[in-house]
From TrEMBL:
Protein name: Uncharacterized protein
InterPro entries for this protein: PMP3
Primary localization: membrane
Keywords on record: Membrane, Transmembrane, Transmembrane helix
Subcellular location: Membrane
Pfam families: Pmp3
Coiled-coil ranges from the UniProt annotation: none
Ranges annotated as spanning the membrane: 6-25, 32-55
Similarity annotation: Belongs to the UPF0057 (PMP3) family.
Gene Ontology CC: one annotated term: membrane
Amino acid sequence: MANFSGADIFLFIVGFFLPPLAVGLKRGCTADFLISIGLTLLGHVPGIGYAWYIVYKYRDEPSEYNRYHGRTYVAVPQQHNYQATAQTAPAHPPVV
């Protein structure tokens, strides 16, 4: 059994009522969105089936999404031996 994130479950519900909206939220304005509009115009049931297929095919991993609450973290390299390299200016300019 596949695990689904909360966002995917929401998209399944939206896909039942407005299939092109669910596909648009999941994939953006791509060919999938246009196919969904066409199938929904041909009949509501084919539109629902296609929307659910897209949400299932491109589902989010719930463990990764919930672990970081949707945020992506990247490791930052550490600099251990750094020294200040700024030159200090003389207090008074030299007299010419």
